[in-house]
Design brief:
mainly alpha
């Protein structure tokens, strides 16, 4: 199969870009000056408290908590504040503020922030398009175990087979294979996602020789053994 035929099945827009806080409905509620009073012995401003507000749909209250914690240097609160600014939960949607908070959290090595910022840099949404930086951020989040970042990284390396300069990825088929295999090993309970990843891996393998496939498989196995603590399920192989 020619490379352009392979990429026809995986257009640039096929990268998985995780919807920030997709579990929560996009509704707006009046802002509040402070969160409800904490129970006796309970901290008013804490990450668990902010997350609890999110789960309850108390978005304005959650923003107050995350804003307080972010001002104190809490990196995860910075990410959540960025995500809420991105989605407009508990206040106005503000992509500029979201990117600023994502950057702060990403610099502090919060994987979810690295993924979110990388997605915006990949698309050039709200910021200048920077595929090299997106690649670096996806790699950092992938190494931390974020499945979507691992898939994005596989896709960028696959796209690099035909567009290495544009995508900032080298023509590294074994590395693309590695990340596809790692993703596939964690999708035992998702038949649809498994089928999609297997399709990507199958097309990639058709453009690889035996030694490249073996190298990619070995790289995946070595990574999974060394990083079992961040894997979502036990490694199950690449579905060859």
């Amino acid at each position: 199969m020619r490379k352009n035929e392979t990429m026809a099945h995986f257009p640039k827009t096929a990268l998985v870009l995780v919807a920030v806080l997709a579990a929560f409905p996009l509704v707006r509620v009046p802002a509040v000056a402070k969160p409800p009073a904490a129970a006796a012995g309970e901290a008013r401003y804490s990450l668990p408290k902010g997350l609890s507000y999110l789960e309850q749909g108390l978005f304005a209250e959650a923003r107050v908590v995350f804003s307080h914690l972010a001002a104190e240097g809490d990196a995860k609160a910075m990410y959540h504040l960025g995500a809420m600014s991105h989605s407009g939960l508990g206040g106005e949607e503000n992509l500029e503020h979201a990117i600023a908070w994502y950057r702060e959290a990403a610099q502090r090595k919060v994987p979810e922030a690295q993924l979110a910022l990388g997605s915006l840099l990949y698309k050039g949404k709200g910021t200048a398009k920077d595929l090299n930086q997106a690649l670096k951020l996806f790699k950092a989040a992938a190494e931390a175990g974020l499945l979507a970042a691992q898939y994005n990284l596989a896709m960028m390396h696959t796209a690099g087979l035909a567009h290495s300069k544009e995508y900032g990825a080298q023509e590294d088929k074994p590395r693309a294979y590695k990340w596809f295999a790692i993703v596939l090993a964690q999708l035992a309970d998702d038949a649809e996602a498994t089928a999609n990843v297997k399709e990507g891996l199958t097309f990639l393998k058709k453009d690889m020789n035996a030694s490249e496939i073996e190298l990619g498989r070995a790289m995946a196995e070595n990574w999974m053994k060394a990083n079992a603590h961040v894997m979502k399920t036990p490694a199950k192989g690449d579905g060859k």
